[in-house]
Each structure stands twice: as structure tokens, then as C-alpha cells.
Design goal:
246 residues, alpha/beta, Rossmann fold, 7 helices, globular
Amino acid sequence: MDKRIVIVSGAGQGIGAAIAKEFGRNGDLVIVTDIDKEKANETASWISEKGGDAQSFICDVRKEDHIKEVVFQTERQFGKIDILINNAGLSKFTSPYDLTIEEWDDIQQTNVRSVFLFSREAAKVMRKQKQGSIVNIASTRATMSEPHSEAYAASKGGILALTHSLAASFQEDGIQVNAISPGWIHTGDRSELRAIDHKQHFSKRVGEPGDIARACLFLTNECNHFINGENVTIDGGMTKKMIYEH
């Protein structure tokens, strides 16, 4: 098969859907996975309607057997996996005084354990080809915080650590592993945003899902294999902005 086979987790909506659609427009065959079957089908149908190729799978990334099944079925049908985008994530902002251990574990299992499990299983296929590319969607909240973001920040920090450690472990198999840390990416109606929301970015606008999707396409281009173990921050310059009280 000439088309690249791309798995995108959490691709039913938001950033994940934008990533899946971008690869679909690029001519790749996209495996759309999401815990919500209807939303996964919507993304896959959109790609198909635009002339692309896509299949949808239900996948609760907290469950190892779901991840293994997606990888097994993908290899069985297409014989390879070229790209994995670990996008699925969950956020919950609760005071550390009130955050339950069940809530903590749910966020870690969804956001960071799934990255390890999906990467491990996909890499077993990629190493047979001696090539592959993995992109993990982290967050600028891995390195900066607002109150009550402990569980989310810890999970995204874990993704950054996993990214460079997996890049080291997979190097002999020709598998490239990078991360993207989005800043403020608005996935709803742009009219909801205020002028001040845009002005606080160097780029003078709030980010869009397409900003992250295009970066995924760039990092997984075979010409960019020398970018490895890296975290690319895409936030319109927001984390570089110095803020003083005047």
C-alpha cells in the first residue's frame, strides 16, 4: 500500500478531528479512534466525503485491550503503521484539597499511560518496517500552571518525559518520537472570543486546531526525521510573554 497509515487517538472532535482531517486531505489513510463511536464515525465520514480514506474504531485509551485491538486490526488490514498521533486527553481542574485519587488516576490513565501503551503497541509494528513516526500531544501546562491543574499538568509533564525516553529506546528501530505542546487552542465558535484574548498572543490571535494539525504533518514528513525527541511549543508566543503589574 502506497498510502501512509495513520492512527489518531481522540479524533472524534477538537484538535484530534482536525489532525485526522489534515492527514486525510494529505492523501493518507486515517484510522480515527475515539471513545465516542458517533463522533469517530463523523470524522471518518468527513474524510471520506472529501475523497480521502478513513476507518473509525471505538477506543477507550484507558483500556489496554482496546489499544491492542486497534493496532492488531490496523496491521491485519493494511500490513503496516506509519504514523501514530497520541492526542486523546482529559482535563479536570479541581483544588488539590478536593481532588480524589479516582479522578487523579483517571486523568493519568487517559492522558499519559495511554501514550505509553499506544506507542508500545504501534512500535511493535513499526520496527518490522524499520521506520515510523510518533507524535504525542502534550501542553504548555506541562511547564506553567494556573491553580488547580495538578493532575492535568502532571500528565502532560509525563508526556514530555515519555517523548524523549521513547525516542531513545526506539532509535535502533528507526522510529522517531516527538511532542507538540499546544497553548490556547480554541475548538469552539471563534465569535466567542474577545479582542483581548487575541491581543495577549504575539501572533495576535488565539490558536486554532489546524495550527496543531499542520505541525503534526510537518513532524511526520520523512524529510524531517532529524527532529527527534523534541517538544515543539505552538502557542502564538504566549509562554514567552513577560507580564508585569503596572
